[in-house]
Amino acid sequence: MADYAKTAAGVLAGVGGEDNVTSLVHCATRLRFVLKDESKADAGAVKAVPGVITVAQAGGQYQVVIGNDVPEVFAEIGKISRVGGGQDSAAAEGPKGNLFNRFISMISSIFTPALWTLAGTGLLKAFLPAAATFGWIDAASSTYMVLNALSDAFINFLPMVLAITAARYFKANEWTSLAIAGALVYPTIVALNGAPDLTFFGIPFTMVSYVSSVIPIIIIVWLQSHAEKFLYAKLPSAIRRFVTPMIVVLIAVPLVLVVIGPISDLLSRGLGGAIGWVWQVAPWAGGAIMGGLWQVFVIFGLHWGFVPLFQVELQTTGHILLLGPLFAAVLAQAGAVAGVWVRAKNKNLKSLAAPATLSGFLAGITEPAIYGINLPLKRPFAFGVVGGALGGAIIALGGVFSQAFVVPSGLAITALLGNGNMVMLGLGLLVAIVLPFLLVVIVGFKEPADDAVATAAPTPVAANDVTVLAPVDGTVIPLTEVADAAFADGALGQGVAIQPRSGAVYAPFAGTVVAAFPTGHAFGLRHADGTEVLIHIGLDTVKLGGAHFSVKVTTGQQVAAGDMLVEFDGDAIEKAGYDLTTPVIVTNPDLYPAIADAATGPIAHGEPLFTAVSVDSVAATK
After folding, report:
1. Identified catalytic residue from 26, 27, 527, 548
2. Residue 521 designated active-site
3. What span, in angstroms and rounded, lies between the C-alpha atoms of 310 and 214?
4. What are 218-251's pLDDT values in tens digits?
């Protein structure tokens, strides 16, 4: 059973501790940190934490990919720290970065809390027309009306939802934001849509629909946050708590109706029209781009920039053409990992590919497939991109669209049924799935050696205590004296550290190199009896990008005790300002929960460093 508490502690320590975190939210598979100083985070240490698939830095966020267990890890972080005060927490501060990264971070923070509810109710709304078409529910019945209302309400009142999340992001009063949004979707205001000769105190304005709108509420809440800061600073304390919201609402709502709403409506209609134009002139091109590059966007966190586009297109045209090709993108990667499942001979690779395939096809969760298999193996990911591009082009040529926002997956295909050319939809999905699958099975890929899929592979059953030899000449010190909380508090595993006096690191036992970082700063090895050890050469040395390191082994390679893993120039590394202290830790405490006979003081490589004590031995002493 996964130890979520250990994963949470390890990740929090690896990103620099609670004090280095401005905010934390999570999506379907990732913890999304905004850090005060990303240089304090150690990507290598985070990747070494059991339960972590990989780390990605994109869109102004430090993203830790966990997989389907991310809500549990997120909850554990909330238990041990003040970080991540809920799925709705967001960042108004932190590293600024460029304007594009800040925009992506903002969109991610505002939409993430509502995304799954939006997708879930959208999926239900997509099922309703199908149920009526097949005669399962009478479209004129009260049952249909109730189901339609509960599936449509969330998207209908989306401005009120975004008012809350935007207020938390911009640090505005969320109840005042809710009052502004409520006014925009108030029945009598909605009824004014399309009415002629409207004025507000003699100022003419054109009424537009704010139902399901996105842009106006985000803009006005941003302005609200600045107005509240100004008013709180200027108004007497005796009246500012109730006068501030009164003034803000009195100004904000007319400002939206007279200025922001009409301008954003023009922009939205222009954007929706542009999307429609592309689909009219060269639909295959639009479909190929979305189907081929969508998973690339996901890797870099750029996909969040499209979420408002989906809502804008839905609001202005009543459907979403952009979504159709995304089904091809998602299912193509699932098809590629299914090919790996079929072709692979490596048992660990097969065991990882099986759940990744099911997750991709059924739920549209492709991160385990991409980060755990397709991307490391290279060819499967490339074949998935090709299949997604061709399938997306075919689907777009068929004019396929969705009338609700859904997360692309096998279960959500009903959202596309009856909307466009169904033959082209079927052909596009078939190509997207079958082509990558066949390419992977026929062309193949460079398969790692046994046990090379380190972080996701099942760990062998502990059998015996294992003696770990010193990998480097130097002086042994306790982990508690390491100037890095990720190691010092033992969250990443038990062990010791060595202050090197020579420039070579050797294998501490005979086994498999399960992780050989190209930067040369860290190595993971697994003993035949199951002990997994991480050797991390220096602190923050990953930032050197491989400078002053000469790696001698590769991931998956079998080594004997004493084989050289890497040479390094210690003097140059220290002159560059880095601490060469080298932690040596056991990273699978579920099987080796303790160490014994730890050496102290001067030591030479090849001498006993400590004994990894198996769970059987620990149980026998009780």
Report:
1. 27
2. no
3. 10
4. 899 999 999 998 998 888 878 888 899 999 999 9
pTM of the model: 0.49
How far is the C-alpha of 23 from the C-alpha of 34, rounded, in Å?
5
Distance CA 315, CA 310 (A): 9
Strands 608-613 and 466-469, sheet pairing: antiparallel
> How far apart are alpha carbons 528 and 593 in whole angstroms?
17
Residue 384 in contact with residue 374, Cβ under 8 Å? yes
Residues 26, 303, 527, 536: which is the catalytic one? 536
Using CA atoms, how far apart are residues 289 and 595, in angstroms rounded to an integer?
53
Q: How far apart are CA 593 and CA 494, in angstroms?
A: 8
Place of tokens 């689907």: 395
| pLDDT, tens only, 85-94 | 444 444 444 4
HEC string for 354-420: HHHHHHHHHHCCCHHHHHHHHHHHCHHHHHHHHHHHHHHHHHHHCCCCECCCCCCCCCCHHHCCCCC
Q: Are 107 and 114 in contact (CB under 8 A)?
A: no
**E strand or H helix that includes residue 74:** helix 70-80
Amino acid at 567: E
Give the number of other CB atoms < 10 A from CB of residue 574.
Answer: 13
Quote the pLDDT of residue 104: 61
Cα 531 to Cα 509: distance, rounded to the nearest angstrom? 10
- Catalytic: 27? yes
